[in-house]
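Researcher: I'd like a candidate sequence for this fold, 782 residues long. If you have to choose between options at a position, lean toward the conservative one.
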């Protein structure tokens, strides 16, 4: 017991190097075993490949034999298709006089001569679509008589036989093997007539090939390998097979184009199979042989059982030998670790192995020194940012700041001429996925670094607020005015933020001041300039020098204009109300020079007008999810955005007024609906009849109904009739003809056509679905 405890403790890779040594010895020991496994796998693959080659050779024999039979069938099909009498019979629509019957008999004699082409052909006949005639070498009859009395399929109805075999287009089509009523199994070959006619074939040549002769050759191969053989046509349908069932896994079919001659797969019963296949270039068929893998590898499995037993014995002996050698080499390492632990002041970390502990002991002093250096270097930017932030806000006594103080904090200026540039982020949503503090910090970092690279030693960046970065720029003495230095910086910064980082910003720039003590004054000017973003709009550059020349003005919103706006809104006419709002905005913000404060007062007056109108309508849902519309409008960052929100309030108000106003056309629309529902059985019910009843022009009535309902009058009548027929179909005593008459159709054909167009199924299928649902309900209730 103590032995196993020691083994588990040493085998833990996080606590000991013992497992490393043990794993090395075991890996050396397992190398021959792995080589043997690879050799066995190669041998197994060679045996499977040899078996597949053998099956491939036998499949080639089958392919040649079957292709030969198919070639005989195609020769017979060509002889019949090219018979000169056939085209005349295909074009004829009736056989009346004796001369036409004579041509008919002559063609039958030709068919009798063609019947000696191949012994594997069970029967063949020609179907003429114009006259529904089936012609064999010995008789003439119609398709139903031939199918029911002479040669019909056992598990296929006449309708399916007519649809799948006689009608439609066939080009050398080979249908899967099927049983006739006399229990003979045949493969059906179909060719549309005349040759080359794809759109409207006039007949079909049907050749029935006896499956028994082909199956005999397949069973010879089956007796050799105890497997199954499948023959697939171009559509991957099973033409014939020697297997007990006629199914082949769809998953296996999809793998028959891998480019290899064989493959392996596991069937539904969990048995591993070896599949060999080949293709026919003549007809596109695929020949597949499926053999259980245990038959192919019978001898290999015997050798494998002996090899596994021998490997188990070797593994047991090797494990004991590996443990002994690993423990012997582990003892010196353990002694070194114990010596290191005694020389350290802190105990050994048991979560690491001995090698990690040795490396940690050697590198601990160096790492600790480096951590101390990194901590000191990290504090320098924090000290610098704090000093600059207090400096621009005027919280530093500039007269007491010395050059040594600046060097200590890593701050340097080109001169004592300073300018402040405030960068305010307008839209960073395209750059940020989430409005999180982490992403805002990244945006500020990007702006600060881009500006720092453009300014070089001339400027310092400071993060002021969540969406605002300040640049303290020291202008060179050689530049007399900032206009010769700042425009390039502003242009390049905006281009980089717009193009590379998809972020739009507004820049506010102060005047140039001399001396550290004037930096706070420049910051105040930049703040005042930034307030004018309300007037200038997003993504603008605002110089404080440009604002100094503006004179304060009053906004224009007289009572007459307000009354006109209220009249438009009361009538629900948002189009004219929007025009009035646009004129108010144009006069005040484009033609005049409003201050931000006066602009906000104008919007408060507009919102006051909205409240006057909304109060007359009574309580309603708060628009746009904000409990305070005035606060919502004032939340716009620019005058343009506040104007858009104001128009949204008036739009919501006009739509509410318009929706609550009664519409005279609704009553007429409801009367038309009731008239249609009451006259469903009337076969003459239509647009003209409804227009005559209501004394209206048919074109106007059609346009009126389409505008109110979104559909035509005829479509609505058809939908009502189908709805009524669905109700009547629940009663099984009514026939389709009776139901068609009750819903206004002259016969069942019209009802079926309209019903299938609307519901997607025929009335008969709908009734059958109802009956199935009732049976299921009865069974569940039991």
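Model: Candidate sequence:
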């Amino acid at each position: 017991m103590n032995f196993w405890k020691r083994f588990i403790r040493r085998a833990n890779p996080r606590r000991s190097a013992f497992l490393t040594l043990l794993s090395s010895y075991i890996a050396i020991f397992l190398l021959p075993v792995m080589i043997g496994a690879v050799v066995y796998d190669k041998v197994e693959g060679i045996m499977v490949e040899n078996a597949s080659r053998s099956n491939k050779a036998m499949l080639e024999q089958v392919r040649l034999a079957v292709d030969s039979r198919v070639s005989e069938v195609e020769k017979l099909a060509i002889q019949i298709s090219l018979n000169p009498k056939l085209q005349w019979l295909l074009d004829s629509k009736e056989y009346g006089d004796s001369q036409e019957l004579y041509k008919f008999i002559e063609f039958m004699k030709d068919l009798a001569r063609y019947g000696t082409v191949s012994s594997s052909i069970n029967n063949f006949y020609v179907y003429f679509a114009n006259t529904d005639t089936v012609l064999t070498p010995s008789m003439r009859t119609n398709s139903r008589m031939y199918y029911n009395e002479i040669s019909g399929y056992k598990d296929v109805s006449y309708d399916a036989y007519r649809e799948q075999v006689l009608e439609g287009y066939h080009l050398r089509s080979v249908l899967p093997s099927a049983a006739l009523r006399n229990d003979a199994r045949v493969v059906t070959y179909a060719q549309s007539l005349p040759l080359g006619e794809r759109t409207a074939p006039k007949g079909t040549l049907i050749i029935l090939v006896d499956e028994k002769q082909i199956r005999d050759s397949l069973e010879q191969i089956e007796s050799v390998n105890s497997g199954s053989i499948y023959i697939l046509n171009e559509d991957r349908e099973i033409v014939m097979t020697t297997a007990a069932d006629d199914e082949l896994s769809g998953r296996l079919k999809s793998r028959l184009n891998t480019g290899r001659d064989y493959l392996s797969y596991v069937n539904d019963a969990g048995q591993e199979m070896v599949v060999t296949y080949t293709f026919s270039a003549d007809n596109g068929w695929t020949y597949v042989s499926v053999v259980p893998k245990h038959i192919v590898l019978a001898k290999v499995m015997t050798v494998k059982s002996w090899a596994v037993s021998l490997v188990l014995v070797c593994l047991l002996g090797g494990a004991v030998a590996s443990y002994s050698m690993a423990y012997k080499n582990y003892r010196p390492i353990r002694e070194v670790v114990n010596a290191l632990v005694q020389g350290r002041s802190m105990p050994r970390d048991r979560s690491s192995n001995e090698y990690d502990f040795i490396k940690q002991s050697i590198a601990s002093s160096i790492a600790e020194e480096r951590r101390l250096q990194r901590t000191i270097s990290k504090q320098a930017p924090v000290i610098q940012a704090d000093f600059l932030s207090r400096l621009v806000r005027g919280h530093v006594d500039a007269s007491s700041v010395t050059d040594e103080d600046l060097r200590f904090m890593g701050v340097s200026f080109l001169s004592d001429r300073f300018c402040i540039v405030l960068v305010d982020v307008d839209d960073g949503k395209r750059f940020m996925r989430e409005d999180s503090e982490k992403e805002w910090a990244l945006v500020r970092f990007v702006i600060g670094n881009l500006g720092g690279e453009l300014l070089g030693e001339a400027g310092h960046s400071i993060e002021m607020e969540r969406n605002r970065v300040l640049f303290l720029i020291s202008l060179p003495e050689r530049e007399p005015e900032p206009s010769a230095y700042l425009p390039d910086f502003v242009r390049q910064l905006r281009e980089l933020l717009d193009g590379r980082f998809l972020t739009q910003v507004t820049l506010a720039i102060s005047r140039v001041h001399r001396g550290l003590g004037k930096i706070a004054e420049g910051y105040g000017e930049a703040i005042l300039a930034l307030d004018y973003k309300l007037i200038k709009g997003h993504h603008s550059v605002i110089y404080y020098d440009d604002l100094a020349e503006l004179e304060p003005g009053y906004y224009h919103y007289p009572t007459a204009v307000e009354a006109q706006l209220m009249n438009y809104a009361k009538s629900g006419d948002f189009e004219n109300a929007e025009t009035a709002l646009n004129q108010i905005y144009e006069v005040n913000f484009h033609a005049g020079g409003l201050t931000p404060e006066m602009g906000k007062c104008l919007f408060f007056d507009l919102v006051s007008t909205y409240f006057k109108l909304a109060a007359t309508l009574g309580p309603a849902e708060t628009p746009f999810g904000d409990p305070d519309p005035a606060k919502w409008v004032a939340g716009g960052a620019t005058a343009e955005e506040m104007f858009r929100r104001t128009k949204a309030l008036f739009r919501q108000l006009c739509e509410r007024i318009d929706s609550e106003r009664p519409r005279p056309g609704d009553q007429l629309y409801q009367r038309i609906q009731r008239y249609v529902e009451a006259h469903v059985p009337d076969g003459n019910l239509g647009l003209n009849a409804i227009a005559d009843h209501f004394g209206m022009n048919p074109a106007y009535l059609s346009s009126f109904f389409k505008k109110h309902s979104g559909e035509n009058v005829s479509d609505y009548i058809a939908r009502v009739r189908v709805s009524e027929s669905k109700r009547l179909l629940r009663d099984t005593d009514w026939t389709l003809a009776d139901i068609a008459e009750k819903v206004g159709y002259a016969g069942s054909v019209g009802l079926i056509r309209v019903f299938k167009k609307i519901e997607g199924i025929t009335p008969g299928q709908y009734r059958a679905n109802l009956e199935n649902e009732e049976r299921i309900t009865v069974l569940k209730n039991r």
